[in-house]
Amino acid sequence: MLPALGHVHREVRPAMATIAQDLARVQSRHWAARPLPEPPRTHRMSKSAPPQHDRIGVLLEDWMRSYHPEELFDPEGRLKPELRALAPRGARRMGANPRANGGLLLKPLRLPDFRKFAVEVPSPGTEST
Questions:
Q1: Residues 6+ apart with CB under 8 A from 117
Q2: By CB neighbour count within 10 A (0-12 exposed, 13-18 middle, 19+ buried), where does 46 fall?
Q3: Are 11 and 28 in contact (CB under 8 A)?
Q4: Residue 40 gets which letter from DSSP?
Q5: Is 109 exposed, middle or buried (0-12, 13-18, 19+ CB in 10 A)?
Q6: Helix, strand or coil, per DSSP, at residue 46
Q7: 19 near 13, Cβ under 8 Å?
Q8: Does the model's pTM come out above 0.90?
Q9: Cβ distance 16 to 9 under 8 Å?
Q10: Pairing with 97, which of 12, 34, 117, 123 sits 20 to 30 Å away (CA)?
Q11: Mean pLDDT for back-to-back runs of 10 residues, the chain (129 residues)
């Protein structure tokens, strides 16, 4: 069974912050002092985007609203309880299902003896299969 990995995020975040600070320090020492770029964010548009992006923003908003978020989420943005109740629990979850989790339901593979398929090659480049 896999160990719980919830602690990894809390432990990795400070390490990544330290690495980013070290990189910024090295960067400012050896190259032109430029800040590290922010990581990209999904569905993010700059508020100071050029006017041609207004149309894209409207299209994006129309597309996102086509999912009817007001029917899916409460005013605080949380998934509505009646929808959350539909999600499988325990071993019924996809990642917890023994047949989907490669490690909980191990069976030896039944493979033919590969030696029966060997091709005798007296010297390289002289035989064809």
A1: none
A2: exposed
A3: no
A4: P
A5: exposed
A6: coil
A7: no
A8: no
A9: no
A10: 12
A11: 53 78 77 57 57 76 91 92 92 80 78 90 78
